[in-house]
Amino acid sequence: MVRVKSRYLLCEINVSDRRDLLKLDDRAVSGTVKAAVARTHGDYGAALCSIRFCVKYLNAHTGIVFLRFPKGCYKLLWSALPFITSIECCGRIIPCFFNCLHVGGTIRTCQKFLIRYNTRQLHRMLPKCKNEEEKRQIQKAILSCSLTGGGDEALEDELESEEEDGE
Amino acid sequence: GGSNAPHACLPNRQERQRRFPLLTVSSFPCVVATSLQQDVSIHGSECAVFYRQEPPAEPLGFSTVAINYVYELTTKKRQEVPSPVPISELIGQLPVVQGRSRPIKVLNRLTVVMSEASPFVSFPLENRPNDAEYRAFDLLAIQPTTEKLFHTSCMLCEVDIICISVTEKLPFFFKRAPINGAIDRGVVFEVSYASALRDSTMRRYTIANAVCLMESCKGKNVIVSSAAEKALDLRGPYDIINLGALFGLSDADSKEAVSSTCRAVLLHAETRKTASGIVSTRKSQQEGLQDCVGS
């Protein structure tokens, strides 16, 4: 059976200032990745990047992106990601770095991993809670994490607000 | 921000260049509770940078961090070895390792940059590795700049890590003999990647020097670490493993460079302080030292 296979890279964009995260959009991220690949691997890398590369999902609240690469050359393109030091977006330069969390063959596996990862992050935030109200909110968000439910969005909002309070 | 000039004994030149503790260079075993698509749980290690109030090592998944102090030896005059700032002063509360309930371990590390042969150069590390000044540091690293010094540090010096310089073209070639001698002794070679993130020329030097090293040592006893000075210079363990492929390491060697070799360095450093790895001494609360048998 002939099937076109890709690799989906689950990356987290870490910025020093969380408010800058909200300004990201997928065109800026896509442009940054292509520029970094061209800088590191030259014309060959830029050509490989134009095959099937795209940003499939970007969550500005938590900084999670799904990048799709073709299966044959994803390692080469992935090796250019650590060299990204900033993203330029609507005239502003946001210093950041990409942290790859998971490589999956399909978006569904990446999503399953992301839900488990977010659950773990919420668990880690639990001891840092300052009052009972926040604790209950986190516990509710943990319980509602699932693949099909709307738990994902609730999780991310929880994640974002808790991290702002916790830090 | 965050510079507080803790090294009052450093000369001014150094203070100008490195005002705050550098990021740890070595990798340390860390438990990353995630897994790649092949469902291998990685015990990656890397040193993360601690930058005063903001420890980004926590979300990246590292379990040990070393704070690096650089000490340059020149022929001019005998300079004081910097004394490390106690960890509790630098960072308030240590974050917890991802997936475990232990907090991150933070160690101190000293990098000695040896530039020329001088009466002071061979003296500290060959003859008195357990000098009181060096005892305060958990890890000792050395950065030789000439071929002769490289040979001495591989075969004789009591260090844990030999740094390969990445900011300039290597002035000497690597020979198999001293490298094999170092591998037998358990000393590791280290490549740092933070300078490669800044500049294109630095990137070329880093990759060139790293590839040279890998050719001579066949990928054994190598660690990859960040010499980060800012929180944004850190990278996650999976990214570093992939970077190892750029340096000429195979997949397995690259994973080892971030995990098990780093753990080996930690153990080597601990046993360096003991007598043949069996007896260690610890300063008791009362005056004097007290011998205790421990590992």
Order of helices and strands of chain B: HHEHEHHEHEHEHHEHHHEE
| Total DSSP helices of chain A | 6
**What's the quaternary structure here?**
heterodimer
CATH level-1 class of the largest domain in chain A: Alpha Beta
Number of strands of chain B: 8
Number of DSSP strand runs of chain A: 5
Name of the CATH architecture of chain B: Alpha-Beta Barrel
Gyration radius of chain A, to the nearest Å? 17 Å
Largest sheet of chain A: 5 strands, antiparallel
Strand order of the largest sheet of chain A: 2-3-1-5-4
Q: How much helicity do the residues of chain A have?
A: 40-55%
Can you put this structure into words, describing what you see?
The complex is a heterodimer of chains A (167) and B (295). By secondary structure, chain A is an alpha+beta fold. Helices cover 50% and strands 24% of the residues of chain A. Chain A has helices at 18-21, 26-52, 74-78, 107-125, 132-143, 151-166, and strands at 6-15, 54-59, 64-70, 86-89, 92-104. In chain A, strand 4 (86-89) and strand 5 form a beta hairpin. Chain A starts with 5 loop residues before the first strand and ends with a helix. The model of chain A has no long low-confidence stretch (mean pLDDT 81). In chain B, helix 6 packs parallel to helix 7 and helix 10 (237-246) packs across helix 11. The radius of gyration of chain B is 18 Å and the shape is globular. Helix content of chain B is 34%, strand content 16%. By secondary structure, chain B is of the alpha/beta class. Chain B is built from twelve helices and eight strands. The chains are: A alpha+beta (167), B alpha/beta (295). The A-B interface holds A 12, 14, 16, 39-40, 75, 78-79, 81-83, 85, 95-105, 109, 113, 117, 120, 124 and B 33-37, 54, 56, 59-60, 96, 98-99, 193, 196-198, 200, 203, 231-236, 238-240, 242-243, 245-246. Chain B: Component of ribonuclease P, a ribonucleoprotein complex that generates mature tRNA molecules by cleaving their 5'-ends. Also a component of the MRP ribonuclease complex, which cleaves pre-rRNA sequences. Chain B: One of its GO terms (cellular component) is nucleolar ribonuclease P complex. Chain B: This is Ribonuclease P protein subunit p30. Chain B: Belongs to the eukaryotic/archaeal RNase P protein component 3 family.
